Amino acid sequence: MNTQLDNDHIMHYVWGADFPKLVKGEGIYLYDVNGKKYIDGSSGAVSCSLRHGRKDMAETLYQQASTLAYALRHTTTSKVLEEATDKMAQMYQMDRFFLVSGGTEANEISTKLARIYWAQKGRPMKNKIISRWQSYHGFSTDALSWGGSIARRREFIPQLQEDGHIAPPYCYRCWFGKECGKCNFECANALETEIKCRGAETVAAFICETISGTTLAGVTPPDGYYQRIREICDKYDVLLIVDEVLCGSGRTGKMMAIDHYGVKPDIASLAKSMSGGYFPVGAVACTEKIAEPIRRSGHFSPGYTWAGAPLPASVVSKTMDIIKEEHLLENVTEVGSYMEEQLHDLQTRHPSMGDVRGKGLMWGIEYVKDKKTRESFDQSVKFAATVAKNCLDMGLLICSCGNLDMGEKGDASWMGPCFEITKTEIDELLDIYEKALTKTEKQLM
Questions:
Q1: What are the beta bridge partners of residue 40?
Q2: CATH number for the domain harbouring residue 395
Q3: Which of 161, 234, 245, 258 is surrounded by the most beta carbons within 10 Å?
Q4: 20 and 391 in contact (C-beta within 8 Å)?
Q5: Has residue 208 been placed in a domain?
């Protein structure tokens, strides 16, 4: 590895960390300047849904950049943008799409869309956005306000506004002390209470990660949860926005994770996997019901410089083709089920693996000191971070998450390999992971 020094010009994420300096990606592997190979077990930030080094994606970028890289949406449109959104409508089963630069921006625009919708309907006072604790919707000020990641919010509290948060559907550590499958969806019913307390006439939307990302490491709500959420939203004229930035675009085996629950959102935020990991791009998707009053007004003002530009649109268009033509949703489902089986097998052999959760090719492993009591490791132990460091030393890149239990303690590992991964490659990934976990248990338990 090449330790970061303070003689470069980078604002490092961790100063002085012994991180590998990467120079190449090929397949599921990344290579550093010394030629060492690493399995990309988390698809970067769970965003590289296609294998590294695909020549067809490079050719797509080259051809579009050579033809038309940029067009200003205020005064023009482009053929490639029309093609991309036509394919997205077919794949995502939503009606209208607005391409943006990434996930945070997608969530920003999604909430603005909700507020504009109610203003166009003659109800401008409906402008509050209720969200969940232990969620993450991005790092802009507004997104941090809706997000419930206590650790991420702490430094910026004076800048944040509070429209209301409710408990997450965290069955492993239920905030209401209930047992999964034997509850009355108290975590969902909390939305009705919050709407009433805020005043339904002031609430525009409820935003939530369909399946949680890094703040709760793959928490998957039980069947019936989203049906109840949808009922409450409809009862009080509140729009349902699903944040599918991480869990969407095929990551769970369906184009949107909410499709597993048979619920239709009003608005969806998309990013990460929708570009295969080859260009920074996101999107806001909505139903025709949401778009119609705005279409009648003739104007939709939100958006930034790269919104709807041809270059990212071409990458999205190509990614949609690859997902469909190479049957990647089927592979995510099949190989994801295999990965789940192998993780649960590891769970029986390792005392620290308290909970394994997720869907498709996104999996979180929450660590505990004691499986019976579910007692978390203290944050000072840095259990998940040590697992990640041991994995890195052995040639595997994974993510670690902390502060799961109400922001105080609890940590987990997070994996999400590319959609094209094979069962043999899953075995290779998990073999390194188990060796790293075994080493960590010997060090810290």
A1: 397
A2: 3.90.1150.10
A3: 245
A4: no
A5: yes
Closest to 374 measured CA to CA, from 357, 354, 348: 354
The residues, any chain, with a CB within 8 Å of residue 314's CB and separated by 6 or more, are 60, 61, 63, 64, 80, 84
Provide the token pair at 70: 């940029």
Residues 254 and 345 both lie in one domain: no
- CATH number for the domain harbouring residue 220: 3.40.640.10
Q: What's the pTM?
A: 0.96
- Helices (DSSP H) in 97-224: which residue ranges? 103-120, 141-146, 150-153, 186-198
- Residue 107 placed within a domain: yes
Indicate the Cα dihedral angle 289, 290, 292, 295, nearest 10°.
-160
The letter for the amino acid at 194 is E
Domain C-terminal end among 298, 325, 352: 325
Tell me the C-alpha distance between 111 and 194, whole Å: 18
What share of the chain in percent tops pLDDT 70? 98
- Contact status, residue 210 vs residue 85, Cβ threshold 8 Å: no
Beta strands in 171-290 (DSSP E): 203-209, 239-243, 267-270, 282-286
The residues pairing with 282 across neighbouring beta strands, listed in sequence order, are 100
Note whether residue 420 is domain-resident. yes
Number of domains in the chain: 2
Residues 155-165: pLDDT tens digits?
888 888 889 99
Contact between 248 and 88 (Cβ < 8 Å):
no
Gap between the Cα atoms of 439 and 396, Å rounded: 14
Q: How confident is the model at residue 7, as a pLDDT?
A: 63
Least-confidence region, from 5-19, 186-200, 261-275: 5-19
Give the chain's length.
445
Other CB atoms within a 10 A radius of the CB of residue 120 amount to: 16
**pLDDT of res. 2:** 53
State the Cα torsion 347-349-353-358 to the nearest 10°.
-10
pLDDT of residue 223: 94
Same domain, 103 and 38: no
228 & 332 share domain: no
**In-domain check, residue 185:** yes
Summarize the confidence of residues 111-125 as an average pLDDT. 96
Assigned token pair, 46: 């769970």
Q: Could you tell me the CA-to-CA distances from 29 to 24, 35, 55, 376 in Å, in that order?
A: 8, 11, 15, 32
Domain of residue 358, residue span: 22-54+327-444
